[in-house]
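DATA SHEET
Item: assembly model
Revision: 1
Owner: S.N.
Input lines:
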Amino acid sequence: MRRAISRNIALVSAIFIVVFSTMLITNYFQVSGSQTIQSELLEGLRQINEESGGNLQLQEQIRELDLLARKAYFISLNRLRTGVVILLVMVVAFAVSLQVYFAKSRDIPDKEIDPIDDWLTKSRTRKYIVRSAGALAVCGLLFAILTSPYMRTERSETVAYADEYEYESQMPEEALAMTAEPESQSIASDPETTETAVAAAADPATTETVAAADTIQVSRVTHNAFRGNNSLGHSSATKIPTSWDPASGRNILWRVPVSRQGYNSPVINGNRVFFTGADEEARELYCYDLTTGKELWRLAARNIPGSPAQVPETTDDTGLAASTVATDGVRVCAIFATGDVICADMDGNRLWAKNIGVPSNRYGYASSLLIFGNSLIIQYDNSNSPRVISLDLETGNQRWVRERPQKIAWSSPIIAYVNRRPQLILMGDPNIISYNPNTGEENWRVECMLSGEAATSPAFSNGVVYAASEYAVIIAIDAETGTVLWRDNDILPDTSSPVATPNDVFVATHYGLFARYDAKTGEITKTMELNSEFYASPMIVEGKIYLVGTDGRVFILSARSDFSLINSFDTGERTYATPAFTDNKIVIKTEDSIYCVSSL
Amino acid sequence: MLVPMAIFAQHRFPQPDFESGYVYPERHYFTPAEPFWSYADVAMLVLLMGFVAWAVIRRQVRWPVILVSVISVAYFGFMRAACVCSIGGVQNVALGLVSSSYTIPLFVLLMFTLPIIFTLFFGRVFCAGVCPFGALQELVNVRNYRLSKTVTSVLGVFPWVYLGLAVLFAVTNSRFIICKFDPFVGIFRLGGELPLLLFGVALLVLSIFVGRPFCRFICPYGAILSLFSRVSFMRVKITKKECINCQLCHNACPVDAIRPPYENKVKESRSAGVNRILRYIILLPLVTVAGAVIMYMLSDRLSKVNSDVRLYDMVVQNETRPMEVQPLELQTFYGHGKTVEELAAEVAEINKAFRIWSIVIGAFIGLVIALTLIGLSTKRTRRFYEIDDANCVSCGRCFGYCPQNQLNKK
Amino acid sequence: MKANKKNKATPEQRREFLRTCGRVLAGGAVVSLFGFSFRDVAVWNTTSLWQIDPEKCTFCGRCETDCVLPTSAVKCMHAIKVCGFCDLCGGYYRANVKDLNTAAENLMCPTGAIERRFVEDPYFEYSINETLCNGCGKCAKGCNAFGNGSLYLQIKQELCKRCNECRIAQNCPSGAIRRVSPSEAYVLKGA
């Protein structure tokens, strides 16, 4: 009798538990799904409401939805809690009735699974343990080998060389990996015919052997724009040489003359070095091999609709190619003083080109490009219609544009992450303005550059924007609110942009004085007379400041609290460009040549 | 001024001067009586373990085990929500022994060592029903379908591997994986991550038919206790009278810890047996070294469990190719003004620790496997049914099955 | 040969000897573990409670979603001695609010857990209804961005389950959650 009752209870509770828990789980998913949808919807409506400035009907809708969402949230919470308690009670009932039901039934001797002979079992167990341990070890080894960075290096981060440069058409997944990791392409090439190239592509094993045959490790540290990534004057490169000599060739990896003149700085991505050159005849984008200094390709900006037949007048110290190019490892973009913008892929194929209007500029257009995500940002200050433009990197179509009520500036944009949000900060005359790089909306503006001509770019560190320009001011601005923290006008740079660390701001003047300001207070904490002239901007790498004077003298200073001169030497070549850094290497562009310094 | 994050009292707005005689409301936040509960837990632990020890060793009865199981599930399980438990305490102790920044609270140390001390004296009385996980499985278990000894022995190595990994991640201050993958805590808290909850429910359903799958094949603390249980001073006996080899207890045991009588009939010369053991002993250092080497090779992968290492990877990725939308971790990292170099140095330290400890843990796992093999190549003659002290969880099920005990009652 | 056999211990004796060795080892291990742990004085007074350091917290919103409890044990707290009693409160109202009324489109808190009471012109007193609060931190973020930062997040110790490893702490991007002793169970602002 008791057994029958307990069996029935067990059965009923078991069915109840199964049904009820299924319901609870589905309910849980429904609720969690609908909640997020509703809150997103609500958030969207609220934003529309704020933008439209109070639409009564919309507000009613929001209120209703909000009430619904809150009700749903609290009811579902309560329901879940009571549901779980009911479930628990039923589980207890089930367990108890099950125990009662089986209380009297004994485990009678059942058939042995194992052989009676204990030794046989043991022997068999030993065998299985050895096998499974072996299998585990093999799995571990395979996993370790397959995912080791060395393997990945061999597969995708290497560059192989031969006479002809040819993009390898790879397996689809490898191609995918390439878009994800732009600096990891392999230019494999084929000494023979395309046939083998196809065969190599079809057979990954062959590809690997081809790639492994002659490979060079490429650093992951990039220098994607003027003054490094985001144009902040910092590089995370390591093992940078602190002395070299182009005349004797000490620590010089290669050195080649440039075909056309330009004051732009080189940029580095993977194994490629990019820069531009221009004269009356042609405006060209160059790609050089970082390890050999060989020219990989060049692309001329021609056949662009709207491009002026006559190149605009520029002064000798600006020229037609003063703007530095920008790359993201998939594409590279260049701009010239004619207003021509070209975008190419890593093999020099032109993706798109357009003329954004010939800039009216008394010296010549000089602002460098910057790539943010999938957009190309152009500070297009000129005396006709100064504006900042964001172009779709893929197509060249305009994303957004903002008029800038400014006089001309020759500065370049920077991207700063403030409180986890990116800000596009542009120096200008008279305003320093922070934009949202995604939409072009203005975050704040500070009117401060009241005299002189703004040619330097801002610096940024630890939530504060620093800007300095000759005959104007050096200023620190809280990038979150746009409030001025301090300002000073003692020692100011002309062309060379400042760099900042959380503690200090460094400024190199054109008359050779190098100064350090306290980032917190704006006091000058140290100055150094370097007896040179600075057009190039200082770069902070490995805690050291690298600075090149126009006379070719290199100064390496400690950026830490001691702030002392570590080394200085003369390279004997006129240098206006800011050097580019990657692990072990520096690329320096002088007036008529480009060379690579390497410690290897 | 320069830190964009929360700052104590910004004082953008001054404190108002109230004219209406406003009085600031007083608020006090009461700290719960945490020390009291800690001592209550320790007292409860000692009390319950003592009760079980008395019941299974002195009196040879099972009902106290069930009573203790119910109390433990209710108190340690549902009321105290199973934290900090002895099983997870393994990690605290490992971290506390290695790290200078973390001190093991006395309470956790006691939760960890008291069951060990009791095991050394009375066998695994903690597992019997004081541990809420064991108790839960004990309470739902109704039938025991026997698993092949081969299968259980092979699966029995897993707790050691799990223990090794848990210690590795604990000493490198990366993660407490035993807590992260705890299948039952969700049940005790009436909610948690769904996959783990389902795993816990699956284990419970399994334990209706198979005795204590968690204790036998997963629990790393059980592995430690089994070591101490082997050498315990007093131990559970099936009966105080002479065994009549009726096989009933063997069938009743939920954890397969009763070994049948065995007479060595293997036709093998003594020297062959000795040679086999010798071979395994020679193999022992090899397996140990192999384990160490494999784990060393895996150490870089394993270090990805550490959040700082993952952050560093993210930062490196972002430095080479800035992301359009930065994940929260990156935003916070850049917001806090720590430099990439500092992070890189920290990560290098972590990776170094991982390499060293991977070698230790790999050697440990290899050693366990080799010792298991040696243990499996000994032959021992048994005349009666005997309890395997390492695996016996003192649940007391066998007492009721032994006909000799029944006689005793009459 | 025979004499040899007599001197040899029986398997039982051998096993018992090994067992004794094992006991000594095991006992030694436990004693040395205790000895080693007590080298640190702190062992006596530390109990693991978890608490948020308001100085590090960035109000990212993970406290709401990552707690093991169905509704997070993290709640918003209000340091009233720090509060500016503003009418336009950055924690109470959304950022671009136009009318300062209690309509749903203007309020920040998704659960309606912030209550306000008029004190005198132009001051309002704010308080948190902790049964409604889900610890999302939206109000604290607003208050820290625009106001005095009197709203901040704390773990309510009577709700916290004191997991051996706090899941929010593992996922906190700024590492703001740390172990504290019961004597400092709350890190209060403006106290």
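QC remark: Chain B touches chain C through 69 residues (CB under 8 Å).
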